[in-house]
Automatic annotation (TrEMBL):
Broadest EC class assigned to this enzyme: transferase
Example GO BP: polysaccharide biosynthetic process
EC numbers for this chain: 2.6.1.90
Protein name: dTDP-3-amino-3,6-dideoxy-alpha-D-galactopyranose transaminase
Keywords: Aminotransferase, Pyridoxal phosphate, Transferase
GO molecular function: pyridoxal phosphate binding; transaminase activity
Lineage: Bacteria, Bacillati, Bacillota, Clostridia, Eubacteriales
Family the entry assigns: Belongs to the DegT/DnrJ/EryC1 family.
Modified residues (N6-(pyridoxal phosphate)lysine): 186
């Protein structure tokens, strides 16, 4: 049996009729940029997460860049984050001109260790970016308490955690801003790139909306006024969200970006969002089977904090002899993945930051041991059993 790490074709087949219909509708409508599907999906996603504003963008990386910029973070600022994550978390901090400051992770949950944050705070620190890695929430109460004490902003990197809960509260509502990715392999994925910024702060939302489209038009003007403490009225037009025929389009107020969620992706995500809770529940069901059947092996299974309801973006095992394990699983047709082989403080590109091996012992230890096995919702019980047997053998 051959089992991939994720099977996007299986998901497509399960909802093909709806996806084909909405895709065709967008194509024949010829409304490809912004428009009804985008604004409706933003509304539906905001409602799903439980926030006032959802601002869609081109991908999760751009969501992080714009979130940082909307909070005024830039040149010379320091931002605290984890080294055990996808590169974009730190890359975006660098991209806005700030410096990522790494804090080691907890050995059990792989999330940033709140007890090690305060020693890294300086007069330049402006924000903390916790990552809900593999779909399990970081310890947000502790993180928010530190942030409050030191007057820092909190940006949740929720790219792997859509639908996840912490102490009964939704991921995405736990900081000043949160960022999501709709990359096809994420728990909620589109047919290409997509991303979302969410916040309940009106001003952050206005600046983010302006930055997404060249800092122009009504939002650009409002964002300019906000950033410069100006209180005068702004010019408005009807259908100002229509970026194709908007008369305010060529009036620019900020240096921004061009990063929008395509209408066709929004239409696809509107079909998928109502299935998300069921898909995440199935991931938890599969994880439970793995937990039970693998607990008597010499592998370490994931530790979930009682306060968390994870969404298992990945099911991560740890092995003393990872390379041997992975090659044997490959022989048996079970795909695996290594997340993450190089912690970010040891990436070549960050040599200039001056970290060395031994600085983040937990992240380094994990980087030699962790690997992912298939956990996508369309996995059948028969496939799960096959994977368990292959691992046990
Ligand atoms: C996927 C991911 C991103 C970036 O999202 P893209 O849509 O690929 O740009 C950022 N952070 C984390 C933790 C991710 O997993």
């Amino acid at each position: 049996m051959n089992i991939p790490l994720i099977d996007l074709k299986a998901q497509y087949k399960s909802i093909a009729e709806d996806l084909d219909r909405v895709t065709k509708e967008v194509l024949s409508s010829a409304g490809y940029i912004m428009g009804k599907n985008v604004t409706e999906f933003e509304k539906e996603f905001a409602e799903y997460v439980g926030v006032k504003h959802a601002i869609s963008v081109g991908n999760g990386t751009d969501a992080l860049v714009i979130a940082l910029k909307s909070l005024g973070i830039g040149e010379g600022d320091e931002v605290i984050t984890t080294p055990f994550t996808f590169f974009a978390t730190a890359e975006t901090i660098s991209a806005v001109g700030a410096i990522p400051v790494f804090v080691d992770v907890e050995k059990d949950t792989f999330d940033i260790d709140p007890s090690k944050i305060e020693e890294k705070i300086t007069s330049k620190t402006k924000a903390i970016v916790p990552v809900h890695i593999f779909g399990q929430s970081a310890r947000m109460d502790e993180i928010n308490e530190i942030a409050k004490k030191h007057n820092l902003k909190v940006i949740e990197d929720a790219c792997q955690a859509v639908g996840s809960k912490y102490k009964g509260r939704n991921i995405g509502t736990l900081g000043d801003v949160a960022c999501f990715s709709f990359f096809p392999t994420k728990n909620l994925g589109c047919a290409g790139d997509g991303g979302m910024i969410v916040t309940s702060d009106d001003d952050i939302a206005t600046i983010a909306r302006a930055l997404r489209t060249h800092g122009s038009g009504e939002n650009g003007q409002k964002a300019y006024n906000l950033l410069n403490n100006i209180t005068e009225e702004v010019a408005t037009v009807q259908n100002a969200d229509d970026t194709v025929y908007n008369p305010l389009k060529y009036y620019n107020y900020l240096i921004g970006y061009n990063t929008r969620l395509d209408a066709i992706q929004a239409a696809i995500l509107r079909v998928k969002l109502p299935h998300l809770d069921r898909w995440n529940a199935r991931r938890r069901e599969i994880a439970k089977i793995y937990d039970e059947k693998l607990k008597d092996t010499n592998l370490v299974t994931p530790v979930i904090k009682e306060e968390n309801e994870p969404v298992y973006h990945m099911y991560i095992l740890q092995s003393e002899d990872r390379e041997a394990m992975l090659s044997k699983l490959k022989e048996k047709g079970v795909a695996t993945g290594v997340y993450y082989p190089v912690p970010l403080h040891l990436q070549k590109v960050y040599k200039n930051l001056g970290y060395k091996e031994g600085d983040m012992p937990v992240a380094e230890y994990l980087s030699h041991r962790t690997f992912a096995i298939p956990v996508y919702p369309e996995l059948t019980d028969e496939q799960v059993d096959y994977i368990v047997d292959a691992i046990k053998k």
